Amino acid sequence: MAAQKPTKKTNASAEELKAYYRDMLLIRRFEEKAGQLYGMGLIGGFCHLYIGQEAVVVGLEASAKEGDSRITTYRDHGHMLACGMNPDGVMAELTGREGGYSRGKGGSMHMFSKEKKFYGGHGIVGANVPLGAGIAFADKYKGNDNVT
Prior knowledge:
This protein is an all-alpha fold. It is about 45% helix and about 0% strand. It is globular and about 55 Å long.
């Protein structure tokens, strides 16, 4: 007996699929530019790119709802862009300019946006876990069904 092939149907409309593709393309192009700037010495510290993982974060954001929080590790540029943070502000942060989300002080791994409920990338692997647990506990304590 032959194995049954998985279905490839989706509930997403053609317009939604195009929007997902545009989001993935934005992240890819942004990261390519960030890689160039890093190579030119215009981004200080480390710069962990999100190239090749664009679909992961776009899918995550497609399933997120208003009120859900985000917290990541050091490879966080794609998350910032996918949750709607302004690419100009993200790039300003990467290049150490005042217009960045952390006023140019956080760099690649330490951005934050309370408005977007993006609680940062973290340079220390695992440091985000207790912070994420705290955010999730706060949501549970408040009685909402938000996801962190």
